[in-house]
């Protein structure tokens, strides 16, 4: 579904991504791990159109999407979330969801004057869809809460809900577990698995929690120093000496051996 070919991204003399090539298969939940500074988030930003590549190509379903804007990619079904959730705090959780679909009738002054009935009908449909999303994510009780007042984990669920309002094809999740308690992290994991299995979503996830990665992701891609270092199952990755040296640490290797 997503193919990245020999991607480079430089910031002046600093090479954040250095010839990364990878593939994200349709219908997969792919993990992307690596030490801080490995280039993971920069890679996400280039794929999602927030940064132009210095060189290399990105393809989605065989179409060259290199350099397309986030807005253009949004309409193609490619969405990206952030480590720090970007909610509209003064709006309710439900309103945050309802505003996601673009080209709504109420966005033009002409329609607000002369097509009020159509606007009202559209808003009812959006509200029903938002309520269905909230129910799917088990956060219906937050519908009328101001988004600024919900917890960090609930904001991550809200971001996931936004992708459901436009029926995304592929979603890039950046550290979805950062600052989230274990109970909510399990809720997020369950939602990701259900979206993958029931609705055919493709996911690529940056995450440092290896238990979370091992539970959800196959395959797992490892980056280090801007390059792809390894790819395989979580179990295979945790036994790879090069990966251990670059990222996981000797303590994890000893832990894996102790449980073997």
Automatic annotation (TrEMBL):
One Pfam family matching this protein: ABC_tran
Limits of the ABC transporter domain: 2-250
One of the record's GO cellular component terms: plasma membrane
Record PROSITE patterns: ABC_TRANSPORTER_1 (PS00211), ABC_TRANSPORTER_2 (PS50893)
Keyword Transport: yes
The keyword ATP-binding appears for this protein: yes
MF terms (GO), sorted A to Z: ATP binding; ATP hydrolysis activity
UniProt-listed InterPro entries: AAA+_ATPase (IPR003593), ABC_AA/LPS_Transport (IPR051120), ABC_transporter-like_ATP-bd (IPR003439), ABC_transporter-like_CS (IPR017871), BCA_ABC_TP_C (IPR032823), P-loop_NTPase (IPR027417)
UniProt KW keywords: ATP-binding, Nucleotide-binding, Transport
Family: Belongs to the ABC transporter superfamily.
Name of the molecule in the record: ABC transporter ATP-binding protein
Organism, as annotated: Mesorhizobium hungaricum
């Amino acid at each position: 579904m997503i193919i990245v070919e020999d991607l480079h991204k430089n910031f002046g003399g600093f090479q954040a991504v250095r010839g990364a090539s990878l593939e994200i298969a349709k219908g997969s939940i792919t993990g992307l791990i690596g030490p801080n500074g490995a280039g993971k988030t920069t890679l996400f930003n280039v794929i999602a159109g927030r940064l132009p590549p210095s060189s290399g190509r990105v393809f989605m379903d065989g179409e060259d999407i290199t350099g397309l804007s986030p807005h253009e990619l949004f309409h193609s079904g490619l969405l990206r979330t952030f480590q720090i959730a970007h909610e509209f705090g003064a709006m309710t959780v439900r309103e945050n969801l309802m505003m996601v679909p673009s080209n709504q009738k109420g966005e033009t002054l002409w329609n607000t004057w002369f097509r009020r009935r159509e606007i009202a009908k559209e808003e009812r449909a959006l509200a029903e869809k938002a309520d269905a999303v909230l129910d799917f994510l088990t956060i219906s009780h937050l519908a009328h809460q101001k988004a600024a007042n919900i917890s960090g984990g609930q904001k991550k669920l809200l971001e996931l809900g936004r992708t459901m309002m436009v029926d995304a094809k592929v979603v890039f999740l950046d550290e979805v577990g950062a600052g989230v308690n274990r109970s909510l992290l399990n809720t997020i994991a369950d939602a990701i698995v259900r979206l993958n299995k029931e609705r055919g979503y493709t996911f690529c996830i940056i995450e440092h929690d290896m238990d979370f990665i091992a539970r959800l992701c196959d395959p797992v891609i490892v980056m280090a120093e801007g390059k792809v270092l390894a790819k395989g199952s979580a179990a295979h990755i945790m036994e790879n000496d090069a990966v251990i040296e670059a990222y996981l640490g000797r303590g994890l290797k000893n832990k894996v051996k102790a449980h073997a």
